[in-house]
Amino acid sequence: MAFGKSMENENRDFGWALARIATGIVMAYYGSQKALGLFGGSGFSATVEGMSSNMGIPEPLVVLAILAEFLGGLGLVVGLLSRVAGFGVFVTMMVAMAVNANRVGGFGVLATGIHDSVNLIFYTFVLGMVALGVVIQGAGAFSLDARFGIESRIGQIFRRNSA
């Protein structure tokens, strides 16, 4: 147990780290498919081309989404620049959720039998909400942000600007 911390706080920090790291692993996995072509992915150029031509998403936004998934996922895993990483992942997942909801005709489609797209809606929602939690709460004690004092410096900036 860390000096001066209660077991309850340490357990809370550990639980938060598990949620953050699990979300980061998922995001880095899918981002590496798009950015690097790993794990059966199509790679950067093919992903940019495919998403822009098939889905009508402007290429610069596709590039930002790929970077948010891959680099944001890695940032969440190690807890580095976590609020920035979390924001990128959150925005990307909310857009993905909206795209999937639009594809099936809305959010209330459970009875229609379109299970894959509905599952994607909820999947992206959960990933996005954990990422939003990181934006709000920070990475927590088990992170590089905490180790190097990044979290406290960012907190000082927020407190100074909100006062």
Low-confidence stretches: none
Characterize the overall form.
Answer: elongated
Mean pLDDT: 86
Structural Rg: 18 Å
In whole angstroms, the N-to-C terminal distance is: 35 Å
> What's the number of domains?
1
Secondary-structure content class = mainly alpha
Number of strands: 0
Strand content: under 5%
Q: Helices and strands, in N-to-C order?
A: HHHHHHH
Biggest pleated-sheet summary? none
Task: Give me the number of helical elements.
Answer: 7
In which range does the helix fraction lie? over 70%
Structural summary, described in words:
77% of the residues lie in helices and 0% in strands. It has one domain. 29% of the residues are buried. The radius of gyration is 18 Å and the shape is elongated. It is mostly helical and 163 residues long. Helix 3 crosses helix 4.
Compact summary:
By secondary structure, this protein is an all-alpha fold. Helices cover 77% and strands 0% of the residues. The chain has one domain (8-162).
Note the topology.
Blueprint: H1 7-36, H2 44-55, H3 59-78, H4 82-104, H5 115-137, H6 144-147, H7 150-162
List descriptors.
163 residues; mainly alpha; 7 helices; 77% helix; elongated
